[in-house]
Amino acid sequence: HHEINAHGSLDYIDYHTQIDKTGQGAAFSALRVNNGIKVFGHALKATVSHNRYVYYNVYYPWEVMSGYEGIGDQISLYQIDFDLAPAESNYILFSDQPISDPIEMIERIEARYSMLPKAIDYPMYADAEDNLLAKLDYEDNFLFDRKGYLKLLEFALQDFITEDDVVAGYPFYGPWGRDTMVVLNAMLHNSTSLDLVERILRKYSMHIKDGLIPNMLAESGREANYDSIDASLWYIILLWKLGKKKKNKKYWKDAYDLTARIIGALMEQTDKPYRVRKDGLIELDPSFAHGTWMDVRVDGKAVCPRWGAPVEINSLWFNALSAYEAICEAHNSTGSTKINAKAEYLLLKDKVKDSFRKFWTGEFLADRLEGDKAIIEIRPNAIIA
Length: 385
What we know:
- The chain is an alpha+beta fold.
- The longest helix is centred in the last third of the chain and has 22 residues, at 311-332.
- The chain folds into 2 domains: 9-114, no CATH class; 149-383, Alpha/alpha barrel (Glycosyltransferase).
- Helix content is 34%, strand content 19%.
- Helix 6 (194-205) crosses helix 7 (230-246).
């Protein structure tokens, strides 16, 4: 979201503008006096001239759809002129810092984007037959193939990564355990991200409490919020997925210890607002109904009814128990000192598998259980299951 300029406001705002001719074109800058924001530009093989013009009542549809004010003014301070021959390119640069070497900046920018896929209808050759415009997909229905989209997502993800976490809700939120775990699943597809994924998982392992990893860590690192049960289940599953990628003998022993610790703690909870029922399913009290990804609360009360046994939590629970067994088997396959999976954990996995049938209505999965009663409410939680 950006701040818009109210109608007519730009008519009375001063801008300090400057144009300097260079051997490579023209450099220009503009300082908005009332807020101190300054931008710099450089146009190659071009002439730049002052030309102040205000565009009134510009409509921003995405702002309106997001609930923000969506009509404002824009201003143009320069006119840039240059000629282009067929198949010729030119460059206009913009920056929040002075541009000392435009050619070097162009090379740096092009290198940054060189590994990214080009759109399917990108003009690879000169338009000798003068039919380029007819070949363009103006609806942008199929800009890239699947491989191209995955590459773009990897590139976009970099803006949300810190040294030891993923801020999935940036810039609106700080790191959230659940969101981080979900995003780490995507990062596993890139082999260069595996060390970072492991570093993030180890960070969260230092804050496990009562079988839960933090759903939110304060920037100080001394305070944590544990209002999430699914984050811990995603965590266990990620330990297994990462191990398959790393194929490291020592890793499996550490992953086994962490997994057994979390599962054991969850099984032992009796005085918390979450617990493992006699049938093996995880159940949430109404006071902890915000402990899933549907975590919105108003006046301290959960908006979405996730109390009882939520379908998405228990599908993750079964997968976490299965991951525990797989981690144990992976460790033993390395030739290291054998670890025997705890029998009660394996029995619990089988019990959860049988009990999960209670969600099945004959046509679809129920959203949650209250006791053994299937609650038929339309929500997307079964997609996770």
